[in-house]
Structures are given as C-alpha cells and as structure tokens.
Task: structure prediction
Amino acid sequence: MGARNQTAISKFLLLGLTDDPALQPLLFCLFLSIYLVTVLGNLVIMLAVSSDARLHTPMYFFLCSLSFTDIWTSTTTIPKMLVNLQTRDRSITYTGCLTQICFILILGGSENCLLAVMAYDRYMAICHPLRYMAVVSPRLCALLVLLSLLISIANALLHSLMLLRLSFCSHLEIPHFFCELVPVIRLACSDPLVNNLLIYFVASLFAGIPLSGIVFSYSQIVSSVLRMPPTRGRYKAFSTCGSHLSVVFLFYGTAFGVYMSSAVSGSSMKSVVASMMYIVVPQMMNPFIYSLRNREMHGALRNLVSRISSLGLCHLP
Result:
C-alpha cells in the first residue's frame, strides 16, 4: 500500500480559509492587495537604498537582503492561492507542494538568520564603533548573507528529503492556503515519528541559536547605551535599533503563534490564521517599519520620489 501510494499520489487539496463561494472574491482582493503592497514596499526599500550613496552601509545591505527575501516569501505562497481562488481549483501537485515547502523553509530560515546578522551588525556599530568599519567589511557582509542562505538550504533539503520517505493514503486535504511542513506530515499514513523528532530538534537548534544571538546582542547594546551620557547619541543608538527590534518581535511573535496554535489548539482555522500571520504579515509590514522609524530612509525615499518625478517630467512632450 505504501509503495502504491508513493507512486499513485498526484495532488493535494488546499482547503484555505473558507469554502463559502461568496467570500472568495473578497479574499482574492484582500490577498492581491497584500501581495502588491508587499512586493512594491520591499522593492521601494531596495531602490531607495541602492540609489542613495549614504545608505551603502552594512546595515542597509542586510536590509536589502531582508527585503529581497520577503518578496520571494510572498511570491512562493500568495500567487498560487490567488490562482486557486480565481479558478475555484484548490489542488496542488505533489511535486509543487514539496517544492513550495522547500522554498518556504529556505526563505523563512534565511530571514531568521538575517535578523541575527542584523543584530550582530548593530552590536558592533554601537558597542565597538572604532572597530566597526574594520570588522564589518563588505566581504564579511557578503559571507554572512551567503552563509545564512547555505544554512537555510541545508535545513530545507533535510526536511524535504525526509518528507519523501513518507507515504500518503486517500485523505489528502491540507487545512491551509499553502503547503506547510507540519500539516503535510500529519496526512501521512506511514509513521512520521522521525520527521516530527527532526522538526523539534532542528527547530530548537535553528531558531534557538539566532534568537540567542539576538538576545545577547541587544543585552550588550542596552548595557552600552545606558552607560552613555544622556545626549542625542543615546537617542540615535536606540532609534537605529528600534526598527530592527520591531521586525524581530513581529517575526518571532508570529512564528511563536504558529507553534502554539499547532501544538495547543485543535482548531484548524486558528492554525490557518496563525500561519497566515507568519507567512504574510511580517513581509508586508517590514518596509513600513523601516521607512517610518528611520530618518535616513525618509531622506532616501524623498530623493527617490524626486528623481522619479523629474524623470517623468523630462519625458513629457
């Protein structure tokens, strides 16, 4: 039976948020708006940073990497859901589902590592300002981003390859709007014990180490800032960290919500909503958080808008 199902399985069904046909157009418009805001917002951040020479620093290089990751995270999940809502076809192929899981793990892991790298950057800039430019060089920045990507790829491939060993029976309905690792494993009719143990072990290691690094970095930052005289330097130090801390709380808060909903709640709807908060909301909110709380970004955005306006005027007949 296991061998037969491994070869016969062709597709899963994504149940999404609701079966009500009247709500499908509303959900389509909602998620299309979220996707456009996410992509355009992160693209504007990347364009603003690349067009302003004053922002060619390690902090904004990491910010561009985070924006790039956010764009692809949303692109991995939302367009497929929009197609399903428009065509009323909730199916996804077996290969497509595993591919989506793999990319979500890569991109989520990359964001996890990038937040830790950004915390290290702020730690060096505030606690060791004299050594900052010598230590956090462009080469180190590129290596840290590459290392984050490689670690995330290794983690994703490990889970994806372990998923291939499972066999699936007739019940192939996923109570989500995208393929997520844990709900897919729950559909297996073979023993998923090894997969579940791997999830808990890797998650505790893969999320615990970056989060511990973030906590350590900010404990040192707060200690260093509080030793400063109460001048504008203290305010500037806190303001440069405020945006990153907001993103950290948003990312790990929603991730913790997904974990709690899947571990404690028996409601599939609560799990779907929690997963949506994790995979959609942080990616949409990150550009607003960084643009609203950062004066340098304000200036770069104004310069970008003025350049686009001047180019438009130059092309007018």
